[in-house]
Amino acid sequence: MNKPKVLLALITQENDFQLEQAVSAQLAAEKVGLDLEIVFADNDAVLQTQQLLSHIQEPGKRPNVIVVEPVGTGMPQVANAAVSAGIGWVLINAGVDYISDLRRRSNVPVFTVVSNHEEIGKIQGRQIAALLGNEGCVLYIEGPTIRDVSRLRTQGMMATKPVKVTVKKLKGDWTQQSGYNAVKSWLSLSTSRDLHVGIIAAQNDDMAIGARRAFEELGDLRERDAWLKRPIIGCDGVPKSGQKWVCEGRLSATVVSPPLTGQAMQMLSYALKTGSQPAERTVVVASSFPVLNQLQKRDLAEAAAPSKKTSV
Prior knowledge:
The chain is of the alpha/beta class.
C-alpha cells in the first residue's frame, strides 16, 4: 500500500524555527506513515505560489495533501485550486477567512494549526516589564507586516508592556541577517543615541541574535559593552538555538512557540485513515523561557549587585 504523499511548503531555510518545523514534520511523518516532501520558498511569496501550483497542476508531482506556512497572504486561489484537484489543504500559522467554505465543499482534509501570536506578544510584553521596569525605551524588531504573525505579536506586546515604556520599531524578515541589517542601519543614525534604549526585543530569536551581532561589531569598545549589557530577547524558543542562546547568556529570554507541523502530520494521518475532517482550527500554547518570576528575580539580583560591591 502506497503511503499518502504530503508536500510541506515552508518560508525559508535561513530561520531556525522553520528548520525546526521541517524536522518536526519529518519525524512525525515517518512515525505515522506519510511520504513527506519539503520545499522552501526563500522568503519569496511568488516562488512559493509557483512551487505549489507546479505540484497541483502536474499529475506526476501531485500530493494527497499540501501543508503550507505562507510567506505572504493566505493564498485563497491556490487553496481553491488544490481542493478542486482533490488535494487536502492545511495552513500553518496563518489566519484566513476561507477555510470554513472550503471544508463545506470538499471531502479532503482542510484545517489550520496556529500559534497564539497575540499571546506570544503578551508574554514578551511581560518579559519587557520584568527586565526593564515600568518605564524606558524598547528597540523592537518586527517581522514582515504582510502576515498576521507580526501584527498580532506587536498587538500583544503593546497590550502588556508598561504604559510608560516607549517603542522604537525596526523592520526585519525573520532572518538573522535582517536583524543585523536593521540594527546596523539604525546605529548609523545620529538620533539612535538619543532614545536611551533599555532593552532590545525581536519578534523571533534569529532577528534578536542578528541584532546582538551588530552590537558586537561596534568599534568603540565602551559603547559595544554598554549595548551588550542591555537585555536582548526574542521569540520561538527552539531548543538548539533560542533556548540555547538564553542558557549561554547571549539572549536574556525567549518565548517558546512549539513547532506546529508535527501535530499537523498526526492530525492528517488520522484524517486520511478514517475519512474524517479534523478540527477547523487548532491553537498551540506558548510559554516564557525562563519563566517570568525567574526573570524578575534575576533582574533584582543584578540591580542589587553594585550596592553589595560598594559596601565591601
